[in-house]
Amino acid sequence: MEINIVATQSREQMAEQIKRILFGLTEPERKLLNTVLKLEQENLYLEKPQVRQDIIAEIRKVIV
Amino acid sequence: MKLISMALHNFRQFYGAQSCDFATGDDPKRVVTVFHGYNGSGKTALLNAFVWCLYGTTTPDFQADDKLENEAAIAEAPIGAEITVSVSLVFDRPDGRYRVRRARVSVKEGATQLRTKSDTLDLFHTNDAGELVGVEENEAKLQKRISQFLPNALYPFFFFNGERVERIAGEDAYDSVEKGVKTLLDIAIFERGERHLRTQVERDLTAALQQLGDAELQRVAKDLQDLEQAREEIDSQSETHQKNLQALGIEIGDIESKQEKIQQLADLTKERDRLRADETKNGIDIVEAKRRFAASLSKSGFLAFAEGILSATETLIVEARRRGDIPAKIKPQFVDDLLAGKVCICGTEIRSGTPEHTRLLSWRDQTGLADLEEHISYTAAAIGRLRERRNEYRGSAAQFGVDMQSLLSARKSIRSSLALIQEKLGDPTHGEDASRLHESLKKLQRQREDTKAELIVCQRDAAQNEEQQVDVKRKIRTLETQNEKGAAIKRQLDAVDHVADALAALAKIQKEDVRQSLDESIRAIWDDAAIKQYRASITEDYSVLSVSLRKVWRAYCSWGSFTPERGAPRCG
Fold first, then answer.
1. Which residue of A has its CA nearest to B513?
2. Helix (H), strand (E) counts: chain B
3. ipTM (interface pTM)
4. Is the pTM of this model over 0.90?
5. Looking at B385, B417, B449, which one is the last position of a domain?
6. What pLDDT digit, counting tens, does each position of B36-58 carry?
7. Count of domains in chain B?
């Protein structure tokens, strides 16, 4: 996926970019993205979180 | 997280039960809570009460951190008696009110000796009826929840004392400040997500592919693994160089401040500082000049090569006019009407297949040029405008050359003056100390230059490795596999790649958002506080850039072809 982010842009343009990025993903990929963000948020307090197994489990669930 | 109140029991200087309600901002006249006291009265103890209550630890500079119990409480307790120390903290979060209580029960075994009997942590949360009820979870889970409210790495930015304020502004704190800002502003979750996908997850999936895929796929998967491993080594080396650079910077700073303290070197060190400031300013000017020219190059640079095509187009138009091709003599609509009406203006009937019909059709072909007429007239006007732009661009390119020459020659002169000062600083007539410091400084500066060079090599290797990984990943995608499981892993690797790309892009947007917010804030604060005609802004690498408004005005005038005497442009 080719994503070019322009450094200086308005907030509206940023919102548009975010929308474009999310719509550029397939439904299973969006699910994976949500899971990754949720796991990272939950483990943000840890210096070296062990999230690999949880992410792989999600990948195997959504992409077969 | 809004702090509401705190209650202490026998915590350090605070004997018995003590409590405090904080100003929460609900009352506009009470927005700040101030603790004022002499040294040793317990201000740092209060700070540590927060930290201990939330994390079960204390700040690194807290003395005798193993003894939290109040001395009077210990003294008055008989041998064998239990002494309880506790801290409760009430705070609000978007999902309601919380109360955390941490307590330690110790048994007195000697005049000042205590043995910890138990440590407990309780968490309460408001239920639907608005009552605080205990959260039934084990201590590890409770601690996890609390750490999620405010990650441990962030508390030093909220609970700190005077000494920490000084350290936080030091160069050695940059890393931790950067990490804290990224965590606090949600950049870290995107970056960590991308990193985990690109390293751990991708590596596991590639290893699985190596086991399951066909021979060729296995070979390419192995290449990817090797590249990933090499990348890890490069990153680790790079990190070491960065740390070394930081440490060298601190050591160099220390030696330079020692030099400043030597009386005979005072004037020279002042001159060195002045030259360094000039060097920094010169560096900013060079970057700014390059940025301006890059903008001009990107907008109009192509016109430098356009004269040939502009002249050729102009010649074509002139020739078409000379031949009488334009303006078109007959409009296509006129011929279409004749064909539709099947009668010529001379009254001849025009039936399909007749010579008259064929002749009219050939006229219609000629009228095709009329469609171009509008475009040709637009192009003729555009050629003039493009030529103007081309001249402007050539002017700006020539000006850039002149500016750069002057800036580079200024840089050369500053650097040679600096080298001269450095030499003078090492003059043996300034004494043994000065000479020794000079030698140490030279050695450290050499080391710093070497480390910088090694870092550049690492960056180059990392970029090369990145390109190779992209190639190998592309190859993995194109390779066919007969194995169904192998094909599924390929799909999963694709998805991981897409999601990692998306996370990297989201992190970039989030960073830009943060930079813009900082830029707006710092500009407002600066405008309010600065006396001089300077404007502050946050650059793309998060440095604060202070620019003279007069200079900006001059630069603006030169970009827009305006002069200060002619006044400000009305638009644009």
1. A11
2. 15, 8
3. 0.91
4. no
5. B417
6. 888 888 888 998 999 999 999 88
7. 2
